[in-house]
């Protein structure tokens, strides 16, 4: 098993690896259907489901496929941020890339928490994991997520039309990437 994600912090936030003790707090914010409107999962319907998700996050970490953090503002859970689909090699190619994924509880949105939490996670990905590129996507109908991505300095490179269907509506995904050398200049900016 690889090491657990380190605790990361910013001026307002603390990012901690998920534990089963966090299941009730996770359930409280992941049971809101407004949070999951554009996400690949449905609202949690029980604390047991939130525990299972935490277990899945821990398993992804153990197998090197993902790193996950809970985002706390003071002692209140406000969201989750992750590096998923980590791919170091594919056959003879070296890729050293991951996808950034995040979501913030509806009552804590529009406070800059996703952007603030992403910066130390991206720094960790480039400096500790040695990744060369991070990709991120947002549903075309989700301008709030686009603002986060823009603030982080990502560059749009593709639009995936009809990428997924949820609640009987098809959504396109806009894809962005950020290279390690591009992020180095962003560390001191807010």
From TrEMBL:
<feature type="domain" description="N-acetyltransferase">
    <location>
        <begin position="13"/>
        <end position="171"/>
    </location>
</feature>
<protein>
    <submittedName>
        <fullName>GNAT family N-acetyltransferase</fullName>
    </submittedName>
</protein>
<dbReference type="InterPro" id="IPR000182">
    <property type="entry name" value="GNAT_dom"/>
</dbReference>
<dbReference type="InterPro" id="IPR016181">
    <property type="entry name" value="Acyl_CoA_acyltransferase"/>
</dbReference>
<dbReference type="Pfam" id="PF13302">
    <property type="entry name" value="Acetyltransf_3"/>
</dbReference>
<dbReference type="InterPro" id="IPR051531">
    <property type="entry name" value="N-acetyltransferase"/>
</dbReference>
């Amino acid at each position: 098993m690889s090491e657990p994600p380190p605790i990361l912090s910013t001026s307002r936030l603390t990012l901690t690896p998920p534990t089963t003790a966090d299941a009730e707090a996770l359930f409280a914010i992941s049971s809101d259907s407004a949070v999951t409107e554009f996400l690949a999962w449905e609202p949690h319907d029980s604390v047991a489901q939130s525990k299972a998700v935490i277990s899945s996050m821990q398993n992804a970490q153990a197998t090197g496929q993902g790193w996950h953090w809970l985002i706390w503002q003071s002692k209140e859970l406000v969201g989750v941020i992750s590096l998923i689909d980590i791919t170091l090699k594919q056959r003879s190619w070296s890729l050293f890339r991951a996808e950034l994924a995040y979501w913030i509880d509806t009552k804590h949105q529009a406070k800059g928490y996703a952007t603030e939490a992403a910066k130390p996670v991206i720094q960790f990905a480039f400096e500790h994991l040695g990744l060369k590129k991070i990709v991120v996507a947002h549903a075309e109908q989700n301008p709030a997520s686009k603002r986060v991505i823009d603030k982080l300095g990502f560059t749009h490179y593709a639009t995936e039309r009809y990428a997924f269907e949820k609640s009987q509506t098809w959504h396109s995904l806009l894809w962005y990437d950020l290279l390690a050398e591009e992020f180095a200049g962003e560390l001191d900016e807010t």
